[in-house]
Specification:
The chain is mostly helical. It is built from 8 helices and 4 strands, in the order ααββαααααββα. The protein folds into 2 domains: 154 residues, no CATH class; 84 residues. Strands 1-2 form a two-stranded antiparallel sheet. The chain is globular. The protein starts with 9 loop residues before the first helix and ends in a 6-residue tail after the last helix. The relative contact order is 0.11.
């Protein structure tokens, strides 16, 4: 395993730190907030470029660790870097940097410009954390923060009735989909005992776990299919396909 993947968390950490610092800066510190937001996202992009070339040959790098102990067992999280996640990291950080630069002029005359950049950094951090997750638990936590940041951004101009209504609608819609997502995670944890994607043969996307889940029938379909459909509910809710 390359030691690089152990430090993959730096990619989402940089915009998360920017969000935290921006949140406590004085309201009139607009330039500082803008500069910090853009600089940290650009730095995440540069690290993402390095990450891409680490797996450009089609390899996969994982780093798993114990988060805390619970009931004699361990709750484990991890980072994952493969060609797909590396490409997504580059795309999100590059597009994010462009959006942040554009937002400087777009929000130039808004009195709450600093707050807007705080929400943007939070959204980016959660999205990047989601991409590098090697655990459904970590992915779900980042998923929920993405939902929160989306709510805050959609309703940023909350004094407008249309914006206030839109953010409530988006929040409720995504939460409905997340119910299925969470049920799928709980079911998978019960059947598989672990929520890591890849873990030296013990991950739920590896052959042993998939064969076990495929061997369990639920209402005429395999448990793997049923769990997959529940997880898919989260994606449908997040993209606004259901329950609209």
């Amino acid at each position: 395993m390359s030691s690089f993947v152990q430090y993959l968390w730096l990619i989402p950490l940089l915009p998360l730190v920017a969000a935290g610092i921006n949140a406590v800066l004085p309201t009139d510190a607009r330039r500082a907030a803008m500069g910090l937001t853009i600089a940290t996202m650009a730095a995440s992009f540069l690290i993402s470029v390095v990450a891409f070339f680490k797996v450009a040959d089609g390899g996969r790098l994982c780093h798993n660790f114990d988060w805390f102990s619970l009931g004699g067992g361990h709750v484990r999280l991890g980072w994952l870097l493969d060609p797909l996640s590396a490409a997504m990291l580059m795309m999100v950080t590059f597009v994010g940097t462009c959006i942040f630069v554009y937002s400087v002029a777009y929000m130039a005359h808004d009195a709450r410009q600093k707050q807007f950049f705080t929400f943007l950094s939070l959204f980016a951090a959660a999205m990047l954390g989601l991409i590098i997750s090697n655990s459904l638990l970590l992915l779900f936590m980042c998923w929920e923060v993405v939902g929160l940041a989306s709510y805050l951004l959609i309703g940023f101009w909350f004094e407008k009735p249309s914006a206030a209504a839109a953010c409530k609608k988006a929040f409720i819609t995504t939460r409905i989909g997340d119910i299925g997502f969470l049920l799928g995670i709980v079911w998978l944890a019960k059947e598989n005992g672990a929520l890591l994607f890849f873990d030296n043969g013990a991950g739920f996307l590896e052959q042993g776990a998939l064969e076990h889940l495929n061997g369990l029938a639920v209402g005429g379909i395999s448990a793997a299919t049923a769990i997959g459909l529940l997880l898919f509910c989260g994606a449908m809710g997040k993209s606004g396909q259901v329950p609209l």
